[in-house]
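Bug #77: duplicate submission created two jobs. Keeping one. Sequence:
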Amino acid sequence: MSDRDELTVLPGEEAVRRRIHMYFGVGRGDPRLPTMVFGEVVKQAFHPGRDSAAAHVSRVVAEITADLVFTVTDDQADTLPPGHDLPLFTGHPLMDRRLRRGVYLDASTICTHVDVEVWRDGRGFRLTLDGYRPIAPPEPFTAPAGAGTRATFFLDEAFTGRAAITLDPMLLDLHYPDCGERPDGVVLRDLRG
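Kept job's structure:
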């Protein structure tokens, strides 16, 4: 039997759940996992990708609200194609190109759920996800001023163990290797009492 015969192709969510180390650098139950997930999501928010937004989002606020819960808010809802109207949930359970792939989606697979909101031009919609799937249709909400995206991740203790998110600077590298700029537009807050 060859190595090829032993390979198993897994669907998206299952691939992340069974091979967490490939996505976040540490494995299931590792006490660093919550911090690594937090850091990768913040990095993705600040660097959404060339096809989604500018090289750097101008403002990202990341708040730790409980040991395994964090919220990332940015000032970008303009990752949608020009002229695209709200609601932003058409064609996919997530709201924009930035949230449809990458770290946001990977992180959602090891959460009990993720609450996502997006707003622009005085209109806002929210959606709760279970993994990649919405648990209900999007609902409108009273939008704050400007434009933005907010995602609150509720990490699942079944994957993270009893570890907690930290602001350990050794684990929170917010830039990609070729990025020479400092993350001045990133605000990290620990709101736990």
